[in-house]
Amino acid sequence: MRFLVETSARHAHLSQQDLETLFGPGSKLSVKKELSQPGQFASDQKITVVGPRSQMSVSILGPIRKSTQVEISLTDARALGLTVPVRESGDTAGSAGCKLVGPAGELELKEGVIAAKRHIHMLPEQAEKAGVKDKDIVSVKVDTQGRSLVFGDTVVRVSPTYALAMHIDTDESNAASASGEVYGEIVR
User: Fold this and answer.
1) Predicted model pTM
2) Which of 92, 107, 117, 142 is 20 to 30 Å from the Cα of 70, by its Cα?
């Protein structure tokens, strides 16, 4: 089974309370473009993530979440002066913090900054066909021009609300020279 491998660039997910702190009372995310996962979108809004060493602008992905988190690459973390864990999205307990700055305000995030663990989104029937289940760890071969490689430690995420795709961060994408349309497959 082959699937699309997408590069997930640095971004943030915000709670409604934090969105209003950063953008003003009653603020809502506006859709810039739909993403491959159903119901997910890149918004027009951006915020600045401030670390001890530097700062950088990040896009906000919607919809609103229960809690705020920032997903960056390990290279981004070094540039910001942060030490971040590699974790699944949503697993932010005890992770790094930072300052977030928006056009209407700023806030100190005590925790919530991670490097997202590479993962494959699958529907239940696709997982069954591939012989995997939710939370399995697999290896994925990615064929590219001159930098093909196998990504180990890839978590399988299964839900009836997903669309089949693998997500890697910009460091991983650069390592594989994964530009344009790139496909991967689970290897045993």
Assistant:
1) 0.94
2) 142
